[in-house]
Amino acid sequence: MNITEKILAKASNKSVVRPGEIVDANVDMVMVHDLTGPLAIEAFKRIGVNRVWDKQKIVIILDHQVPAESVKAAELHKMLRAFAREQKIRIYDVGRGGICHQVMPEKGHVLPGTVILGADSHTCTYGAFGAFATGIGSTEAAAVFATGKIWLKVPEAIKINVTGQFQKYVAPKDLILHIIGLLSVDGATYKSVEFAGPTIRAMSIAGRMTLCNMTVEMGAKNGIIEPDETTRKFLEGRVSKPLPPFEPLKSDADAEYEKVVDIDVSDLTPQVACPPSVDNVKPASEMSNVQVDQAFIGSCTNGRIEDLRVAAEILKGRKIKEGVRTLVIPASQEVYLQALHEGLIEIFTEAGAMVCGSTCGPCLGGHIGLLAAGETCVSTSNRNFIGRMGSTEAKVYLASPATVAASAITGRITDPRELEGNKA
Amino acid sequence: MKVTGKAVKFENNIDTDVILPGKYLVLTDPRELAKHAMEGLDPAFPEKAKTGVIVIGGRNFGCGSSREQAPLALKYAGVRCVLAESFARIFFRNAINIGLPISECKGIASNVEDGDELVVDLEAGIVENLTKKRSLQVTKLPPFILEILADGGLIENLRRRLKTK
Fold it and tell me: N or C: chain A end with fewer CB closer than 10 Å?
């Protein structure tokens, strides 16, 4: 079996599972946020049970519309706080957490080998820690609140074997955009995407999270990476339980995959996903005719300290082009504080960027940094759909933090290696 | 479970941001959500759907976010069933969980045009195009999913199952 099959077998008390089989899995953790939680709570109240199945296994995180951007949002937040209080559920409120997919592992809610559900499509991010993690809707979350169980179809798996060393200013974001370009936006629908190979072993947790985060953009049920020493180092001191042995969380040598894709990143260049589809991927160097009005560095895809460091390295001592507005949004309070300690906030501010408090912000067009008709944003986030960041007549280009920072300086989409002073 | 209605057809890769734009996610009343169904592509959709329609999609219908507000908006706008070549998995589960009939149907995009009169029988796994006088196979859903749909959604199904325990 591969690692996903092993986790699902254990969760459903079976020795073996096969792709296509439907299992009734025990859930280890479920998360809802401020845009999916209210519907989940309403649905939960209709079930007719008084208490959630396990208050230790539910987490509520306010991140999409924070701080409350309207009275309506404030009312929803109030409802979530009341439910958390009533059920004694952990809630990460404004100023206490940040973007759900950053907060979950940071605060120790993600353990390798567990089944984690989240009422958010980017829940697949936690596969970076060797967990089976997938997105669900609000009603399903409500049912899990009541029962602690979910039916799941064991997915077919695609293995992506990555070798080679990234060039300077080429990042895991460029790799995942390249992969989505290769496989297409429905190339992994219903499937598990497992990343393996020496490049993955050498990759930081932040990079692994970026890869797994965007597997849903090709339709995947989950993205996953076998846990290792890098995983252990990140989680130690964060989790309250002892870490499980990682040995059973390795795919067998004879594990079956529907497809194996080999990728050497040595020649990979900075990539851009052009609107309105995440698989419309082109080299950044070919997009220099695209003028940008807004640059956004943040989101659950690329708002981590490693992302902010590379953006700051590029913005340090430079000024953002007149006419470009740049938003930097750390993925969590922890990331914000670290960026503050390292002097990154100062660098961004001096360059002419606006640093906002941790929120999903412009990524989903809920609030902060929306686009008007005819405007263009180059963004480190994960979706470039029509209307995603505001007007249906605005355009969103997806790229790495380095590419977005370089583009903010020139005012057009720029390969960070081409920036004056960065050239080898 | 037979569903009838006129077809309203969409392309491949219809994402949840066009089905229900993010700015409306603070709305919780499904009737309010319904007013914005498919607003990203066709603001006139709620008017068209009023009398009860069947949405036909191409590949990867419902890709993107996990927002259940997307199928909810469709259901309350008057959509009786969604058939497509393939679906994004969260949208598919969400539709079932809120009691909106849904299934895959290979060849549907090339065999149905906007306005065709359709009859869908999910139990039998068949869709009849009355306008074009032809029928197609619909992927049969497992019995437990048909039960959820028959109950009107996952919560109603769970209530019934918890009672009979």
Answer: C
Give the CATH H-level superfamily of domain A3-240+255-264: Aconitase, domain 3 (3.30.499.10)
Matching CATH topology for A3-240+255-264 and A271-418?
A: yes
- DSSP secondary structure of A208-244: HHHHHHGGGGGT-SEEE----HHHHHHHTTT-SSPPP
From the list A135, A143, A146, which residue is nearest B90 (CB)?
Answer: A135
B164 has pLDDT over 80: no
B25, B89, B159 member nearest A221 (Cβ): B89
Task: Report the sign of the C-alpha dihedral through residues B127, B130, B131, B134, in that order.
Answer: positive
- CA dist., res. A209 & res. A172, Å (int): 9
Collect all residues of chain A within an 8 Å Cβ-Cβ radius of residue B22.
364-366, 388
Mode of pairing for the β-strands spanning B102-104 and B117-121: unpaired
**pLDDT in the model for residue A423:** 65
B chain contacts of residue A382, beta-carbon cutoff 8 Å:
none
Which residues of chain B are within 8 Å of residue A190 when distances are taken between CB atoms?
89
| A138: contact with B, CB 8 A cutoff | yes
> In the CATH scheme, what is the code of domain A271-418?
3.30.499.10
| Domain spans of chain A, in order of start | 3-240+255-264, 271-418
What's the whole-number mean pLDDT along residues A310-323?
98
What pLDDT, on a 0 to 100 scale, did the predictor assign at position A315?
98
Residue contact B26–A76, C-beta within 8 A: yes
Question: What pLDDT digit, counting tens, does each position of A65-122 carry?
Answer: 999 999 999 999 999 999 999 999 999 999 999 999 999 999 999 999 999 999 999 9
Q: What is the pTM of this model?
A: 0.96
Confidence grade of residue B165 (pLDDT, cut at 50, 70, 90): low
pLDDT at residue A424, as a whole number: 54
**Could you tell me which of B13, B41, B12, B83 has the C-alpha nearest to residue A383?**
B13
Nearest CB partner across the interface for A185, out of B27, B63, B153: B63
Q: Domains of chain B, with CATH numbers?
A: 2-164 (3.20.19.10)
